[in-house]
Amino acid sequence: MKAAWYEKQGTARHVLVVGEMDDPQPGEGEVRIRLVASGINPGDVKKRQDAFLYGMPYPRVIPHSDGAGTIDQVGRGVPKDWIGKRVWCYGAQTYRPFGTAAEYTVVPVHQAVPLPPTVSMEQGACLGIPGITAHRSVHVGGPIDGQVVLVQGGAGAVGVCAVRLAHQAGARVIATCRSERDRATVLQAGANDVLLVDETLSQRIRALVPGGVDHIVEVAFSENIQCDINVLAQGGSIATYATTDPNPEILFWPLVFGNASIHFIGSDDVPPKAKIRATHDLNRALDERWLGLPIAARFSLDDIASAHEFVEHPTQAGRVILTL
Questions:
Q1: Residue 25 exposed, middle or buried by CB count within 10 Å (0-12, 13-18, 19+)
Q2: Is the dihedral of CA 241, 314, 5, 77 positive or negative?
Q3: pLDDT tens across 226-279, in order?
Q4: CATH of 141-267, one of 3.30.300.130, 1.20.1740.10, 3.90.180.10, 3.90.70.10
Q5: Are strands 295-300 and 319-323 parallel, antiparallel or unpaired?
Q6: CB contact set of 77 (below 8 Å; sequence gap of 6+)
Q7: Are 113 and 125 in contact (CB under 8 A)?
Q8: Contact at 8 Å (CB) between 254 and 228?
């Protein structure tokens, strides 16, 4: 098969290689997917850069965890009727060496999710890490039906999914974004109110909900923790999955007196049952005519270095995918 890989970490143009490899074969409980599209997440780029200082986990890595295609082979113990199914997959390169930047990938059958017939393969390739991160961030603090949920960074991939999933679960959703251009995307996902970020954000949120916000989905913990404390209701919760400062200051006493809970979300290690619930709820959203995530750019497998560079320095908001 044709694939892209790296055998050392560094800049995209210096370490990514495109070439031929043996076709993978599914093992017990696994399926092989002939891929149509591969979604690129910021985490894929960070792994290749060694931004997390974990080093090379395997001698050779085919990057990307998300993708979509058609199952063409199944391993022992998997019913034959999986063959021919259109699916989206997640976790292809989570604790595994070979992801979706290739013509084929192999994943455990529970990580292959039937793709609704009206949804494109490209959209399916966008769902995995953003959708599972968003779902866990929305639901980790408990039921949200009838509650107020604030989604900070509502126009990002995780943010858009979080807005939709919170709306779907019965919450009143307030979302923030940084430009008027992003407002339509966030509103289409189901936000009740969309606020542009400025120095008056806390006051404007409090004006909308004087009693405070019950739960916050946070994209920039270090930047926004003061705002979050200002608007959080007594006994409220924050779920965060990213920060600009890896060593943020935490204002301890306001959180204590607010009886606040903080949940840290790492998508790779979300409990398996929560991942499966996320896939069901994401498919339900798509079945109910959610348009899904905007796609900013498409690249061929041969041009994977340019795709990674686009993720590092985007010129517009949206997902980046490889077409295969």
A1: exposed
A2: positive
A3: 999 999 999 999 999 999 999 999 899 999 999 999 999 998 999 999 999 999
A4: 3.90.180.10
A5: parallel
A6: 28, 29
A7: no
A8: no
pLDDT in tens, 5-41: 999 999 999 999 999 999 999 999 999 999 999 999 9
CATH class of 2-127+293-323: alpha beta
CA 117 to CA 255: how far, in whole Å? 46
> What's this model's pTM, rounded to 2 decimal places?
0.95
Question: Are residues 18 and 4 in contact, defined by beta-carbon separation less than 8 angstroms?
Answer: yes
Rounded to 5 degrees, what are φ and ψ at 245?
A: -110, 115
Residues 6+ apart with CB under 8 A from 2: 18, 19, 20, 21, 102, 103, 301
Same CATH topology for 2-127+293-323 and 141-267: the answer is: yes
**Distances from the Cα of 101 to the Cα of 81, 90, 95, 218, 297, angstroms:** 26, 13, 16, 29, 16
Domains of the chain by residue range: 2-127+293-323, 141-267
Whether the Cβ atoms of residue 61 and residue 97 lie closer than 8 Å to each other: yes
